[in-house]
User: Which sequence fits this backbone?
């Protein structure tokens, strides 16, 4: 190459670099702008996609039963989803809001009776004496304890009131997500293929595998964890309402929360069963126990059947639940663990293949 050609080549490379930089900046601005526009609806879109993916096997089965009438099958599933949301889920949300407001009001006026602490608490290491003193003050003068703890409890109370007051907005989000998911059921296979084509450009030949793994994870987590948790919470809520247990909405929500965390509802239901034998008529307590024991064991019976291959660790689910709830409110309680489970499964597959690639290159 002559000295005359070298500056021309260098100039062409600089021009190409400038053009590439401009393209990247323009694409980045478009992507950022698009994210700003869809940001308020991101959780709704994510939840509608999750519902569509989770219910698509049922949609496919129903299409076969209706002799290929896909629109009718999609409408039937959407109506059923809206019925579930507008009925039991609406009761759960509104009852939870009422329970939270009632507890905050009773704490504020000091009308909640707290039993004295057991002496064994003093034997706890490090925090025993302090915990005993706080509990003792709460049992004798709850108002004084609330006055002392007011600066620390004010942010928590505001957060609880805000959560309770936003039940209507969250319910509207669930309704919109269910409606949107109905529109996604019919073009579902075509949309999945389009997503696979896009991911192949990003992840190479394994793009289709990653998309399939994402779909399997959504179905396993949504049905094996979220679905069973919702079912247990609604069944427990029915039993609590019929038995006249106070704050039934709050206890039902805790059953849902611990069910999603895979801790299980026993931490809530077993104490309530024991409590029923001390406060209810014997016949009512027997019926309450006979009803609640199967509800408590429901996750152990159903999860192996509907969530085969579910391997997401509990800490991942826990972080997803807490992070999703803090970031997106009540709908984040369901979206958070599913999204984080997808990320976890993809990272596991990706990391598992790295040593193989290293061994192949070393052998070469």
Assistant:
């Amino acid at each position: 190459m002559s000295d005359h050609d070298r500056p021309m080549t260098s100039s062409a490379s600089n021009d190409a670099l400038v053009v590439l930089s401009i393209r990247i900046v323009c694409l980045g601005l478009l992507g950022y702008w698009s994210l700003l526009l869809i940001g308020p609806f991101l959780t709704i879109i994510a939840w509608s996609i999750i519902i569509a993916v989770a219910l698509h096997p049922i949609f496919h089965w129903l299409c076969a039963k209706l002799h290929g009438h896909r629109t009718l099958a999609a409408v039937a599933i959407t109506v059923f989803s809206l019925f579930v949301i507008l009925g039991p889920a609406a009761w759960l949300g509104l009852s939870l809001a009422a329970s939270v407001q009632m507890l905050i009001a009773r704490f504020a006026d000091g009308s909640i009776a707290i039993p004295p602490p057991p002496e064994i608490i003093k034997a706890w290491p490090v925090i025993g004496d302090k915990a005993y003193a706080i509990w003792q003050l709460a049992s004798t003068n709850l108002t004084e304890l609330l006055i002392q703890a007011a600066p620390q409890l004010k942010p928590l109370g505001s957060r609880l009131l805000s959560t309770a007051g936003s039940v209507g907005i969250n319910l509207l989000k669930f309704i919109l997500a269910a409606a949107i998911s109905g529109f996604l059921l019919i073009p579902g296979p075509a949309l999945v293929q389009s997503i696979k084509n896009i991911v192949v450009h990003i992840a190479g030949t394994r793009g289709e595998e990653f998309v399939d793994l994402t779909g399997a994870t959504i179905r396993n987590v949504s049905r094996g964890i979220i679905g069973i948790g919702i079912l247990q919470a609604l069944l427990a809520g029915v039993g609590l309402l019929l038995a006249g247990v106070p704050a039934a909405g709050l206890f039902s929500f805790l059953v849902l929360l611990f069910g999603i965390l895979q801790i299980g509802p026993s931490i809530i239901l077993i104490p309530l069963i024991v409590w029923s034998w001390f406060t209810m008529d014997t016949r009512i307590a027997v019926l309450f126990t006979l009803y609640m024991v199967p509800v408590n064991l429901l996750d152990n019976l159903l999860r192996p059947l509907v969530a085969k291959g579910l391997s997401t660790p509990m800490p991942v689910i826990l972080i997803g639940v807490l992070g999703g709830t803090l970031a997106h409110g009540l709908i984040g309680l369901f979206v958070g663990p599913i999204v984080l489970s997808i990320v976890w499964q993809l990272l596991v597959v990706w990391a598992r293949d790295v040593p193989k690639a290293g061994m192949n290159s070393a052998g070469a």
User: Anything to note?
Assistant: Residues 190-352 form one domain. The radius of gyration is 27 Å. The mean pLDDT is 77.
